[in-house]
Amino acid sequence: MKYLRINHLFLTSIFILTVCSGIAQTPPFYKVTPFEEEGYFSKTVFPFNPAFIKSKKVKTLVLYDQDKTGRDYHYSFDTNGRTTGFITLQREGEKTDTVFYTVYGYTATGNTDYTAQIDYHNGLVRTSKYAYNEEGTLSVIRNFTLDADMPGRPQKGSIMNYQTVPGSYRSLINGHAPGDAFYEKQIEENNFSSRHYRYYTENGANAVEQTEIFDFKKQYQDRDTCSSRKTFYYKNGVPVLLFLHRDCDAKLTPSEYYNYQNGLLTGIRENPNRPDPRNEQYSYDKHQNLMRMENEWGGQVVSTLTMTYDNRVFLKSIQRKSASAKVADYFEDRVLEVTYTFYR
Questions:
Q1: Beta strand 251-261 pairing with 58-65
Q2: Which residues share a beta bridge with 290?
Q3: Mean pLDDT, to the nearest integer, of 20-32?
Q4: Which one of 62, 130, 242, 315 is most buried, counting C-beta atoms within 10 A?
Q5: Direct distance between the N- and C-terminal alpha carbons of the chain, in angstroms, rounded to an integer
Q6: How far is it, in rounded angstroms, from Cα 112 to Cα 128?
Q7: Which is higher by pLDDT, 11 or 127?
Q8: 53 with 77: CB under 8 angstroms?
Q9: Rounded to two decimals, what is the model's pTM?
Q10: CB contact set of 328 (below 8 Å; sequence gap of 6+)
Q11: 132, 139 in Cβ contact below 8 A?
Q12: What are the residues whose beta carbons fall under 8 Å from the beta carbon of 333, sequence distance 6 or more?
């Protein structure tokens, strides 16, 4: 009997260790970075971790606003955990309208190939085409905008005369993104803007310089096409410092500092010499899941973001609570609940 008891305890210990190991090895739900990414809502919805989405076989995810009037966010993923679609819906009582419809395409090597978005507010279709160098590193993103000529939604508030392509929004909804011929024609006619990436090493840090170019100005013989420039400095594979440039030329003093602990982003600090500096603080649970973010303006906490998870480490809810809800749109108080569907 004693021999059997020892074996029972041994097997129980192995089971507990296996369960704990399995939890520890589960990727965190979010991929928290200092950057805002397309399709994620201004420091309220952070980018989902493709490794988590893939490992849990998540097919769709919906963030549902509890208020009768609010916005819902619908995400879809492929079996590799990559985002393939994103839809924003505006609800007012029983009425629901589509605000944005976005699709994502990928290359055979898994890099982002394009994003394309329908803006239902002003009837525009915006596409971004990604290009890479020989090492497979992102070199330029070219941005194109079309007037989709959507019924009842005229183009509004723009100084640009975008090319009108009737029905382009229907093609996108049906899964047909613009082909290479479209991009080649737009580039030839300088109907686009672009973001260029340059990589170099300085003072022991790896630098990534991003330059925004208004290529469309070339149509009017305007040589001043540079719109803005910023440089991120990386150490140990993560960004630690951001410099903004003056008129796309000389660097100013640092704009933001990024702090980490155990590889996790814990804080973003603006230059303390700026008037009313705005900072962010991040905290995590034992599974490295983001639990809370605090927004500080001038040393005062003006807003908090709290995430809850279930026992399987799935995100359950996101709650925004603000001292001054109308300081900025993304500070409005809200509770988003999460639902999922899965691949079999």
A1: unpaired
A2: 284
A3: 73
A4: 315
A5: 44
A6: 10
A7: 127
A8: yes
A9: 0.84
A10: none
A11: yes
A12: 320, 321, 322, 325
Q: Which of these, 46, 44, 27, lies nearest to 35 by C-alpha position? A: 46
pLDDT value at residue 160: 53
Which amino acid appears at position 78 of this protein?
Answer: D
Taking Cα atoms as reference points, which of 43, 74, 23 lies closest to residue 292?
43
* Residue in 273, 215, 272, 208 with CA at minimum distance from that of residue 240: 208
**Which pLDDT band, with edges at 50, 70 and 90, does 139 fall under?**
very high
What is the β-pairing status of strands 226-235 and 205-213? Answer: antiparallel
Q: Give the type of residue at 281.
A: Q
